Amino acid sequence: xxxxxxxxxxxxxxxxxxxxxxxxxxxxxxxxxxxxxxxxxxxxxxxxxxxxxxxxxxxxxxxxxxxxxxxxxxxxxxxxxxxxxxxxxxxxxxxxxxxxxxxxxxxxxxxxxxxxxxxxxxxxxxxxxxxxxxxxxxxxxxxxxxxxxxxxxxxxxxxxxxxxxxxxxxxxxxxxxxxxxxxxxxxxxxxxxxxxxxxxxxxxxxxxxxxxxxxxxxxxxxxxxxxxxxxxxxxxxxxxxxxxxxxxxxxxxxxxxxxxxxxxxxxxxxxxxxxxxxxxxxxxxxxxxxxxxxxxxxxxxxxxxxxxxxxxxxxxxxxxxxxxxxxxxxxxxxxxxxxxxxxxxxxxxxxxxxxxxxxxxxxxxxxxxxxxxxxxxxxxxxxxxxxxxxxxxxxxxxxxxxxxxxxxxxxxxxxxxxxxxxxxxxxxxxxxxxxxxxxxxxxxxxxxxxxxxxxxxxxxxxx
Amino acid sequence: xxxxxxxxxxxxxxxxxxxxxxxxxxxxxxxxxxxxxxxxxxxxxxxxxxxxxxxxxxxxxxxxxxxxxxxxxxxxxxxxxxxxxxxxxxxxxxxxxxxxxxxxxxxxxxxxxxxxxxxxxxxxxxxxxxxxxxxxxxxxxxxxxxxxxxxxxxxxxxxxxxxxxxxxxxxxxxxxxxxxxxxxxxxxxxxxxxxxxxxxxxxxxxxxxxxxxxxxxxxxxxx
Lengths: 463, 223
Prior knowledge:
The complex is a heterodimer of chains A (463) and B (223).
Chain A: H1 9-35, H2 49-81, H3 88-110, H4 124-146, H5 155-174, E1 177-181, E2 184-187, H6 191-226, H7 233-247, H8 262-274, H9 276-289, H10 296-299, H11 301-323, H12 326-332, H13 336-366, H14 373-406, H15 418-423, H16 426-455
Antiparallel strand pairs in A: 1-2
Helix pairs in contact in A: 1-2, 1-3, 1-16, 2-3, 2-4, 2-6, 2-13, 3-4, 4-5, 5-6, 5-7, 6-11, 6-13, 7-9, 8-11, 9-11, 11-13, 11-14, 13-14, 13-16, 14-16
Chain B: H1 7-27, H2 47-58, H3 73-79, H4 114-122, H5 124-127, H6 149-155, H7 162-177, H8 184-190, H9 201-211, H10 214-222
Helix pairs in contact in B: 2-6, 2-9, 4-8, 4-9
């Protein structure tokens, strides 16, 4: 089938937007990692940790991840339906609006316009921009699906549909706020209810941005890159619906032992454990797809990205439910353990799968070969090594601080004051910064490799 | 299978599946008394405290400080009585936080005098050499903007009239600028001379910090 007619311009635009926001987000990440053991870096109000941390999380989540999702979704949509985007100019406008909103969002966070609801910190005018660009995306998603030439929708399309629907509900409900002026608003919910709505959102926005669409990429690009069909279609159906059903019940495991009614916490705990099943459904499906073809781990440079990615996904989805258990949560919550957990997902699972997807997709849309497989391999090892050291350092730091908070003397008094527990973490923070630097170098190589790929002369078009 | 060839039906079904857990654990609890208990002892923030809370939010203090003490023995020992749902009736948004890079602040009100906070905010490292908290001396160089104070309080439904708000602001200003203010020395040290007769952002932030957990003591006393 000829590629003629597919809109790859917008795919490419989003892919390179993703790389841009990835680099920006990581620079901010490194800066705040350094501030954690050297507060002298809080040079100005807009460089202080409290403001920068949200620039980092929003830059990575809304900037990098969303752009990567939009890039791959537009690509997968067209390929899987055998239909070009029905509204290419809308898609192009989506690209421009997206980058404008993210840039304004970053500036507003630097300026301290911060609603403080995690991963929903943007103030209301920017929220409206976010909603508009999602609607623009949704119009092309459903337009393409309705006019599709392929009767059956492949698994990845299910994930794109459920992401679009879920994000709409989550984003709008959690961001309902009453404006005071253009730069300030207050949540319509108060206290425990606000907390419950926020963590329903906070947990699921991670689910429907860092899990669901990444699974869409995994289910599409793994078979494409290996030439192997997904092991079990039935397993993917069961996993899909079970994941979509169970995810929404679990937000309150972020609120264990808080003043939120206990039954909501307990229900969340139960469903969190249940979530292991559908999560591992995808893990098993990924591993078994390579059944009998594990030699591709050596011969096909992309396979190890996918396998490392799905492995971290598997570990992530075991660790998450376990730390959601009330007893373990009492120990781990509020420590760096959770920071380590999040970064295994983002630096391990998300980055690995996005990298492999881009390495496959960019040469395809530019009709060329990847610039350097060797550089891709170097990137793999640097990002893997950086991430493993990074997360392990944070897990140990978390265990240490959790234990120090709980330690008591024989007479029942506390053994450590709070500052002792902070100061004991600095060696881990230094190690984390170094590991982050290694990861960042890997990412720079990734970006360089893709920039050089699109700068190559395309292959002559076959007749 | 049928629905994988019907995108609109598929989307509707996805939404339905997503809304089951959402309705059960989020939408229904919104209207249950257990998520929004009230107590006559818990008073709304004054206009100045609310301005302080907004500065707390603007500076992202919630990224490092939690505001919820869990019912655990060592936690109660370290911070005080565990948090009750009534305390947060006026918190829009909630500021419970998710990471304790610094200590919990839900019981910090009244724990230290204002002078402690002026000195600490000016330079945390000056007070605790190994602290990694950013310095906030510049908050004392910003005059507090009270232009929206009344509007904020009315959006939040605190029930203050315009003159209530003006009176609260005037009263707090009189307190901290009074020559007999017990924390005058440390306030003057961080506040530039031209702002010593005005309310600064740091004054408001400290007013807010001192409010945290104070009302709940009255609530507990009545039990």
